[in-house]
Automatic annotation (TrEMBL):
Residues 18-75 form the G domain. Residues 363-442, 463-521 are annotated as: Disordered. Transmembrane segments: none annotated. Gene3D superfamilies: P-loop containing nucleotide triphosphate hydrolases (3.40.50.300). This is G domain-containing protein. InterPro entries: GTP-bd, P-loop_NTPase. It comes from the Eukaryota. It comes from Fusarium ambrosium. It holds the Pfam family MMR_HSR1. The lineage of its organism: Eukaryota, Fungi, Dikarya, Ascomycota, Pezizomycotina. Residues 463-503 have a biased composition (Basic and acidic residues). One of its GO terms (molecular function) is GTP binding.
Length: 565
């Protein structure tokens, strides 16, 4: 059974109230369903189911009833953060005014998230501002979705849990201030164990009073003056600044397209600008709606809850009528079964088939809803990534502008310092110039005196130099003459040696010619002697043979040979 209004339930002294908070999709409704055993609706579409605060009773023991409060997240897809804050603030303030204080709060966070993204950080900051430091000891920080992790990913889950506990911007500050950390494993036992820890803290330390309750009830602050209200205003201001920057950029791009005669793109930019201007208007309205007192909020939300109660009663009436019609149908079916058992069986079979078909359609719808949810998650991640990039770009531009202004200030300061330094330098230089002028005048006088002395010395030196040069030239000429004489003697010696060598060669040639003539003469004499002997022999043979011709030949041969010798 769900109770939708703070007016619709009352507590006994032993009863406790526990709020369940966290981002959309962290498992708040499922957690409450596991604890209470009730069928708490779980959203599977793009629209978050928990549109308002709901209360679910759970009889923990005969003497104690636990009321679990299901709250919407600050990343709700259909409602602004202002609307969510107004709902939560109204509910918490009302139960506090009725002296119904919270035993504690369970804050759920998905362990499957790779990082604490923008919406998770926003929810966490809002949660911390709602609670206040003094209530951290009544908080259980619970990680969910452990049952969806694969065995190999358990170590990754451990690391993420340690990071959440150790870093101050996540759970670190709350953990050190008394908040407990627990794991919800997705089952009834671990969910009830977490509720049991809250009850133990409550039994020892009493009820928790949240900061938002103190501010709105005890201090009579308007919603925008509370810490949570200021946090929402900060988020709205940041969003407005970003929207204004986008409008400016779109206006400039639209003007550029108009100049380029690109009407189509200009119209698209105009449409986008109108959409963002509508978002800016909504942000202004949301910011203005935060300026609301508790009494005004009570009047506003009471009317809303009465309307919700009226719709719920109307829905219950329709369901009762449908139930009566169903009971009448069953009675008629039973009567028809008595009359015709076979027809009843056929109808029963058809009904079973229809049930199967309906179950199949429901399963298809669930798969489609899951697909849409994944697509929405992807779009949300893309949007958050765009938001992150735009935020980084904005910070980068702010940092560049800050650095530019700082550089400009430093430049101006340097210029002023440089001018002052130059002025002082000019004065110093002027003094130095005057001093140098005096020094130069004195040095000029000394220089002129030294110049006169130097000219005199120069004249003397020139004369001495000329004498030295003449003497040096005389020595050089004498050296050249000695060198020429040596060269001449050397040439004469070489000529004599050449003449002697030529004479020796001539003598050797004459000796060779004489030797050749002697050999020729010796050969000639030998031949002549041989001819004489041969002639005498021939003549002697002619005498012996009484051959006058042979004698004459031999005599002629000997005579010629003797003449040739």
């Amino acid at each position: 059974m769900e109770l939708t209004s703070p007016e619709s339930f009352s507590l006994s002294p032993n009863d406790v109230v526990i709020a369940v908070m966290g981002v959309t999709g962290a498992g708040k409704s499922t957690f409450i369903g596991k604890v209470t055993g009730q069928d708490v609706k779980v959203g599977h579409s793009l629209i978050s189911h928990t549109a308002a605060v709901g209360v679910f009773p759970y009889q923990q023991s005969p003497n104690r009833c636990v009321y679990l409060v299901d709250t919407p997240g600050f990343d709700d897809t259909t409602r602004t953060d202002t609307e969510v804050l107004k709902d939560v603030a109204f509910f918490l303030s009302q139960i506090y005014r009725k002296d119904v204080k919270l035993a504690g709060i369970v804050y759920l966070h998905r362990i499957t998230d790779n990082r604490v993204r923008g919406s998770s950080m926003k929810n966490l900051k809002m949660f911390q501002q709602l609670c206040g430091d003094e209530a951290f000891g009544h908080v259980i920080l619970a990680t969910s979705m452990w049952d969806t992790l694969e065995e190999a990913s358990k170590d990754v889950g451990d690391q993420r849990e340690q990071e959440l506990m150790s870093r101050a911007e996540f759970w670190g500050t709350m953990y050190k201030s008394g908040s407990q950390v627990a794991r919800w494993l997705g089952n009834e036992q671990s969910a009830q164990s977490i509720v049991g820890k809250i009850i133990e803290v409550h039994d020892k330390a009493g009820e928790a009073v949240l900061k938002i309750q103190q501010e709105m009830v005890n201090e009579d602050k308007d919603l925008d003056e509370t810490a949570a209200g200021r946090e929402v205003q900060r988020e709205i201001a940041a969003a407005k600044a970003q929207l204004q920057e986008e409008i400016k950029e779109l206006r400039e791009m639209q003007e550029d397209m108009i100049k380029q005669s690109n009407e189509k793109l200009a119209q698209e930019f105009a449409t986008q600008r109108q959409t963002i201007e509508k978002q800016l208007k909504d942000a202004n309205e949301a910011q203005a709606s935060l300026k609301i007192s508790l009494e005004t909020l009570l009047e506003e939300k009471t009317a809303e809850y009465e309307e919700m109660l009226k719709r719920a009663q109307e829905e219950q009436r329709r369901m009762a009528e449908a139930l009566k019609e169903k009971e009448a149908d069953i009675r008629r079916a039973q009567q028809e079964r008595v009359e015709d058992e076979m027809m009843f069986r056929e109808a029963q079979a058809q009904y079973a088939e229809e049930v199967k078909e309906l179950a199949r359609k429901i399963e298809q719808q669930q798969r489609e809803a899951e697909r849409q949810q994944r697509e929405a998650e992807r779009q949300r991640r893309e949007y958050e990534e765009r938001q992150r990039r735009m935020e980084e770009e904005r910070k980068r531009k702010e940092e560049e502008e800050r650095q530019r202004r700082q550089r400009e200030e430093e430049r101006k300061k340097k210029e002023a310092d440089e001018k002052e330094r130059q002025r002082a330098e000019e004065e110093r230089r002027t003094k130095e110039i005057e001093e140098k002028k005096r020094e130069i005048a004195e040095k000029q006088r000394i220089l002129e005196e030294k110049t006169r002395i130097l000219e005199e010395k120069k004249r003397v030196l020139e004369e001495q130099q000329k004498a030295k040069e003449a003497e040096e030239k005389q020595k050089q000429l004498e050296a050249k003459m000695r060198s020429l004489l040596k060269e001449q003697e050397e040439m004469k010696r070489q000529q004599r040696e050449e003449q002697e060598a030529t004479l020796r060669r001539q003598r050797m040639a004459e000796a060779q010619m004489e030797s050749q003539r002697a050999r020729k003469q010796s050969q000639k004499q030998a031949m002549g002697l041989f001819g004489v002997v041969a002639g005498v022999g021939t003549a002697a043979l002619g005498v012996l043979t009484v051959n006058p011709g042979l004698v004459s030949v031999g005599a002629a041969w000997a005579s010629n040979s003797a003449n040739n010798m």
